Amino acid sequence: MKKILLLLILPIYLMSYDFANNREVQRFMDEMHQKHGFSKEYLHSIFKLAQYQKFVHSRYTVPKRSYRSDASWDRYAKYIVVPIMFTRAKKFKKENDALLSKIANEYQVPINLIVAVAGVESNFGRNFGNFGIFDALTTLAFFPNRKQAFFRYELEQYLLFCREKKSSVFKFKGSFAGAMGWVQQLPSINRKYGVDYNRDGVSNPWDKADALATIANFLHQNGWDKSKMVAIPASFKGTKFRVVESGFDKKYSLRELKRLGLSFGTFEQNRATLAVLLGNQQDEVWLGSKNFDILTHYNNSVNYAMALYKISTSF
Questions:
Q1: Where is average pLDDT lowest: 38-52, 60-74, 170-184?
Q2: Alpha carbon distance 25, 31 (integer Å)
C-alpha cells in the first residue's frame, strides 16, 4: 500500500512529469482544438516539454485563511509601503511625466495611481519575474491547488496570447502566477485590456508605454471615477477589530458598520467594502468605495488595494 501511495505522489516532486499523458491535460487539449482550432500535434508537442514547478505549486497549496482574506498588513507592507518606494515613485513620475500625463488624461485616471501600480507590480521595471509562464500556468492548471480553475482559464488565455503574438509559449517569463511585464498583467488582462500605445502593432506587457496605458485602460473600463473617493479610515475602540469578516468581497451598509462600533467621516455610498489591515499591535480599518473595489478586481486583496492607495497619496 505504501508503495502504491508513493507512486501516486511521486510525480509532484519530479521536474520531468509528463503532462502530455495526463488525462486532464488531454481533455484540455481537446477543448483547445475544438474551441479555438489549435492543432492537436502542436498542443501535444508543447505539453510534452512542459516542466512541473514545485515552488510555483507550493505557493497555492497553503490553506486559505477562513476569517480574513488577507494576511498581516505589517508583513505585506514592510517592503512596499516604505520611503524608498515613495522616492522611486516620485522620480519615476518626473522622468516619465509627458507619457504619464498623456495616458492619465486620455483614460481619466490619476497619474499617481498608474505610478503606484508600476511600483508595486514590478518595482518600476526592476523585477518582471523569472518563471517560465507556460510551465507555471501548466503546473497550476493541472496540479491540485485552491485556484486551479482560475489558472486553467489563464493557461487557455496564455495560449491564445502567444498565438496572437506569433510567439513560442516558452518565450515569456513572469511571476510564479503567470503575470507579465511592467504592471504584471495576466494573459486574460492583456487580451481584454491590452493597449498598443506605442503604435508598433502589438500590445506588449514588457513595453513601458503599452503597459502603463493598459492599466489605465483597465481602470477606465471598469468604471473609475476621478471625482469620487477611494477609501476613508474608520476608528474603533481597542486595538484589534475582529467583529465580522472583512475583505475585498465583504460589503456592509453604513448603518451596520456604525452598529458594529466604527466611526467615520462622510462616505459617498450607502454600502462600503470593509478593509481591515491586520497589524501586530494595531489594526487599521478602512471603508472602500467603488474605486477601491476596482483596484481589488486587478488583485483580489485589500492589502494590495490599500498599498496602491497609500503609495499614490504619498508623493
A1: 60-74
A2: 10
Query: pLDDT grade, residue 4 (50/70/90)?
Result: very low
CA proximity to 78, closest of 277, 248, 272, 276:
277
134/236 same-domain check: no
Domain of residue 287 covers: 231-302
- Residue pair 107/219 in contact by the 8 Å Cβ criterion: yes
* Active-site hit among 24, 31, 106, 121: 121
Cell output for 163: 498565438
Query: In the predicted model, what is the mean pLDDT of residues 211-221?
Result: 98
Residue 101 and residue 300: Cα distance in Å, rounded? 28
Catalytic residue check, 41: no
pLDDT digits (tens, 9 = 90+) for 144-199: 999 999 999 999 999 999 999 999 999 999 999 999 999 999 999 999 999 999 99
Residue 139 lies in a domain: yes
In a domain, 92, yes or no: no
What is 116-129 written as a DSSP string? HHHHHHHTTTT---
